[in-house]
Write a structure and sequence with these properties.
The chain is of the alpha/beta class. It has a domain of about 130 residues: 3-Layer(aba) Sandwich (Rossmann fold). The protein has a 7-stranded mixed beta sheet. It is globular and about 50 Å long. The model has no long low-confidence stretch (mean pLDDT about 95). The structure holds S-adenosylmethionine. The site of S-adenosylmethionine (SAM) has 20 residues, from strand 2 and strand 4.
Length: about 210
């Protein structure tokens, strides 16, 4: 298995075109699950900011961290077009400091990192949820390898539902956790039938 880490330069190159690589609209799973609110939201790895801008428009005080400074500039442009503010921090999951109990919502789409990094750093990231806070995300399943509707072509970055849940679900109530076949229509990079993992978890208020 490869252990590729697609770095900032590669993401900057992807985001340097005129348009938005994954569109300007939010990811459909996030848009279905996130209701208008007024708390603090963290949107990890939001690239050109489409999810963060939409989440800010729902009333959340919204922060992004992502490797890409080109993505930050695109997010600022989209935010000004939509009349919202997003605090976009160029930062790396691996080295970012996460203070516990900061956020009401953490939401992300297609945030794939090498599996060892996922195991070490996704739990740290989720520790920054407040009790009762929710984690909503979508990622590609390992069976996406053969598909042409997007996603990394490396099993090391793709997700098995039970493995993901083993790593992150301790201390959470599962609202939804499933492997699904969906029809994506986000952009030319993410269009067509896809095998995905969709998660919606809530951090328990009291540990059982
Ligand atoms: C496939 S893009 C998805 C962008 C966005 N979530 C969306 O759905 O439009 C993956 C994003 O993950 C970011 N990323 C990858 N590794 C990262 C890391 N270690 N820390 C922070 N961001 C990372 C990239 O810069 C890129 O913006």
């Amino acid at each position: 298995m490869s252990n590729v880490k697609f770095g900032a330069e590669a993401w900057n190159a992807r985001f340097s075109g005129e348009g938005w690589a994954y569109g300007k609209e939010p990811n459909a799973w996030l848009a279905e699950r996130i209701k208008p609110g007024s708390g603090k939201a963290l949107v990890p790895a939001d690239g050109e900011g489409r999810n963060a801008v939409w989440i800010a428009s729902q009333g959340y005080d919204t922060t992004v961290f992502d490797l890409s400074d080109v993505g930050r500039d695109k997010c600022a442009l989209l935010a000004s077009q939509k009349g919202v503010v997003v605090d976009y921090q160029v930062d790396d999951l691996e080295t970012r400091n996460f203070s516990p109990g900061q956020y009401d919502l953490i939401a992300c789409s297609w945030f794939h990192v090498p599996w060892s990094m996922f195991c070490q750093h996704y739990p740290r990231m989720l520790s920054s949820l407040k009790p009762g806070g929710e984690f909503i995300c979508e990622g590609y399943h390992t069976t996406q390898m053969e598909m042409t509707s997007g996603g990394p072509k490396s099993l090391d970055l793709l997700w098995e539902l039970d493995e993901v849940m083993d790593v992150i679900s301790d201390g959470f109530t599962t609202i939804h956790a499933a492997v699904e076949t969906v029809e994506l229509d986000e952009s030319d990079l993410h269009r067509g039938r896809a095998h995905v993992v969709r998660l919606h978890l809530a951090k328990r208020k009291h540990r059982k």
